[in-house]
Amino acid sequence: MHPILKLVVQRIALGLLLLLAVSLLIFLGTEALPGDVAQAILGQSATPEALANLRESLGLNQPSYVRYFQWLGGILTGDFGVALTNGQDIGQAIGQRLGNTLFLATCAAVISVPLAILLGLVAARYNGRWPDKVISGVTLSTISLPEFVAAYFVIFLLTQVIPIFQPVAMVFPGMSFWDRLQAVALPVIVLVLVVLAHMMRMTRAAILNVMQSAYIETAELKGLSPMRVIWQHAFPNAIAPIVSVVVLNLAYLVVGVVVVEVVFGYNALGQYLVDHVAKRDLPVVQAVGLIFAAVYIGLNILADVIAIVANPRLRHPK
């Protein structure tokens, strides 16, 4: 078997095993949450008989390992179950909100990825000089702020000081594309500020590392301009670590936006998760947690595969 194919298969197998382990942790973690599901549904005035009947109908009296395998079997067949609090099909609810989460993540990625790479290239071109210091200082300042602080600052600036946006990101079925873009403008700005510095710093570091190579010196001796040397010779050879960090930040944009969604009231998976944690709706919490884990692990596997394929020693083994 070719070394690349072997490593890719190993990464995928390891990712599946990790996802299985995470599913077990999610199930055990939600089982350990304080409170009684039946009590949360029926209220404090429920009689013991009513609570016992509801626990029986929900299967809560069965051993934990039986319920885990039943839940896992349902997930594998596409059956996420129904929400305990309202009886709504979890798969349909997740499908509606997952689209909103992916829309928000895509908008943030379309802006942040090219901007981070461009700023990284400029910072590497002017390494140690004022453009590098300004770019590094500003981006590091933004990433140092907690997400909710950055969100409230952006809300104050762009809804009160400069009132050009609405503070709540309300989206609903039937909205036009441009209306959606306007609705998610503020959370997109916050997410761009959060992920920009990491990608920019990695781009800068990767470029500076490649710039120490002998072939870069040869290109410079040919009289090529510094920016042309970086773009045509350094950047293509630094693409592997840059792509890896970009993919990892894309994973964050999907699974790490819970705080941003809650602050802006954005109807997506993060908000859905928080609402049902408060209601102790375990099937919803388990399903959303597993989807977040699958997305994060899947994108991490993609980053590993890209790094493997980009390695010339593996592409052309002796």
From TrEMBL:
<comment type="similarity">
    <text>Belongs to the binding-protein-dependent transport system permease family.</text>
</comment>
<keyword id="KW-0813">Transport</keyword>
<dbReference type="InterPro" id="IPR000515">
    <property type="entry name" value="MetI-like"/>
</dbReference>
<keyword id="KW-0812">Transmembrane</keyword>
<feature type="transmembrane region" description="Helical">
    <location>
        <begin position="177"/>
        <end position="197"/>
    </location>
</feature>
<feature type="transmembrane region" description="Helical">
    <location>
        <begin position="284"/>
        <end position="310"/>
    </location>
</feature>
<feature type="transmembrane region" description="Helical">
    <location>
        <begin position="238"/>
        <end position="264"/>
    </location>
</feature>
<dbReference type="Pfam" id="PF19300">
    <property type="entry name" value="BPD_transp_1_N"/>
</dbReference>
<keyword id="KW-1003">Cell membrane</keyword>
<feature type="transmembrane region" description="Helical">
    <location>
        <begin position="102"/>
        <end position="124"/>
    </location>
</feature>
<dbReference type="InterPro" id="IPR045621">
    <property type="entry name" value="BPD_transp_1_N"/>
</dbReference>
<dbReference type="Pfam" id="PF00528">
    <property type="entry name" value="BPD_transp_1"/>
</dbReference>
<keyword id="KW-1133">Transmembrane helix</keyword>
<feature type="domain" description="ABC transmembrane type-1">
    <location>
        <begin position="98"/>
        <end position="303"/>
    </location>
</feature>
<protein>
    <submittedName>
        <fullName>ABC transporter permease</fullName>
    </submittedName>
</protein>
<dbReference type="InterPro" id="IPR035906">
    <property type="entry name" value="MetI-like_sf"/>
</dbReference>
<keyword id="KW-0472">Membrane</keyword>
<feature type="transmembrane region" description="Helical">
    <location>
        <begin position="145"/>
        <end position="165"/>
    </location>
</feature>
